[in-house]
Amino acid sequence: MTTEASAEPTRRDFLFIATGAVAGVGAVAAAWPFVSQMNPDASTIAAGAPIEVDLAPVAVGQDIKVFWRGKPIYIMNRTKKQIEEAQSVALSSLPDPETDKARTKEGHEQWLVVIGICTHLGCIPMAYEGKYDGFFCPCHGSQYDSSGRIRQGPAPANLPVPPYQFVSDTKIQIG
Question: What pTM, to 2 d.p., does this model score?
């Protein structure tokens, strides 16, 4: 006796398809944790990711502090007087000579962006303090001018400038 194959789906065909679908979903569910664990941790991504800062609310003569890679970043909207004072300093009088122009972006000279960690022993300086209308580190007396350059005290170097760029006239990206 010869049997003919039926063109209509049978119950056995349905069971094969259903079993294959469940096995496929189970394989993906089992593989997901292994693939997911290869991605970096969210705190690692956040620690090194660039940040955007809106400068619109910062008035002339004010500063804000944001954190990038766990470091405090001072963003100062300098006054015309501060800019003129910073640009008129003789480089020969500075322990770590660097022009104000090298520490700011062209066309945005009023904005100073520096890492707010004293280069002496890693303290956090205070903005708009000290003799030079810049930063003052109360731990050991280091004084920085309005361009973040060391002027007096034990600190060996200027406050570092982080990598940043202007995304628009009122927004910067740090990192």
Answer: 0.73
